[in-house]
Design goal:
The strands form two sheets. The protein has a five-stranded mixed beta sheet, sandwiched between helices. It has a two-stranded antiparallel ribbon with strand order 6-7. By secondary structure, it is an alpha/beta fold. It is globular, with a radius of gyration of 19 Å. The relative contact order is 0.15. 34% of the residues lie in helices and 9% in strands. The chain binds uracil (URA).
Length: 285
């Protein structure tokens, strides 16, 4: 069976991959630098017409080494599909590493070393072909506004489309602001308002009728991550709609005398991966 993949990073990204900011720029108390940087997802060959600016990677991204591959990514993939964009996109996050704890994102998104490196990616990616820049959430909006103040950012003619972050329903309901259902409706109203702007700005890969979101996500609104977006050889279930990674404490430090600090430490050190039940091929005769 033939598989879709992309051959490595083009040479023009070499300097960015050779020398990227680590703990000196991303304080480990606010970022999970221990899992390494996660740079991008999508086309690096200059064919992208939509540049997506996300926030920070989470558990699935940490394992797959590409951004926006968990449920947030599947929601965004669905949004792009509603604009007829199946392949011509590239995505980078505001941060190379997961934000750890509360408030780290707000505290650091404008830090000079973090922003300067992000601007180098944006300068390379937001080339002539990019027709729209889609920013997910407030931190990505801040990152875009900063980049607009740079010479390359100021010269960009791409239509700017800021939208609510795909995990807004989870974050707003966890903060007790409103119920998850109400927050989902708010997100989808916001995405419905953005869709005509995105569709107007972008030449689609495939002509698609505009199908707006209802009040909640339906299964058809989420899209699996295309195979060519992930490193070659990753199993199919790593891009399926089933969750397969989560933060789990390692148990090494968790004896009966474990303190709260030990428990926090053990949680940060662990990441669990499990093959989703439906994807366990060894059960198939
Ligand atoms: N995963 C990412 O890589 N970025 C986001 O913004 C959300 C989830």
């Amino acid at each position: 069976m033939a598989h879709e993949f992309e051959i490595g990073y083009p040479r023009r990204f070499a300097a960015l991959l050779r020398d990227y900011p680590g703990p000196e720029a991303y304080p480990p108390r606010d970022f999970r630098v221990e899992w390494g940087p996660i740079f991008h997802r999508g086309r690096l060959d200059g064919s992208a017409r939509v540049l997506v600016l996300g926030q920070d990677p989470a558990a699935h991204e940490t394992v797959a080494r590409r951004i926006l591959v968990g449920e947030a990514g599947q929601r965004v993939q669905g949004l792009l599909a509603k604009a007829g964009i199946e392949r011509s996109y590239v995505m980078v996050n505001t941060f190379l590493y997961s934000v750890y704890g509360q408030g780290g994102g707000e505290r650091h998104h404008a830090d000079e070393a973090i922003a300067a490196y992000r601007h180098r990616w944006l300068d390379l990616l937001a080339g002539d072909k990019v027709e729209a820049i889609l920013a997910l959430g407030g931190l990505a909006d801040g990152a875009y506004q900063q980049w607009r103040k740079t010479p390359k950012g100021a010269a960009s003619t791409a239509v700017y489309v800021p939208v609510k972050h795909p995990t807004y329903p989870e974050s707003a309901s966890a903060a007790g602001q409103l119920s998850k259902a109400a927050a989902t409706k708010k997100l989808l109203d916001n995405w419905n308002a953005a869709l005509p702007v995105l569709r107007q700005a972008v030449t689609p890969d495939v002509e698609t009728p505009l199908v707006p979101y209802a009040d909640r996500f339906t299964p058809a609104d989420l899209r699996v991550i295309p195979e060519a977006d992930l490193p070659p050889g990753l199993p199919d279930w790593m891009r399926s709609l089933d969750a397969w990674a989560s933060r789990q404490p390692v148990d090494e430090a968790l004896g009966p005398k474990a303190t709260r600090v030990d428990k926090v430490e053990a949680k940060r050190a662990g990441l669990a991966v499990r093959v989703p039940r439906k994807q366990r091929v060894w059960h198939t005769p």
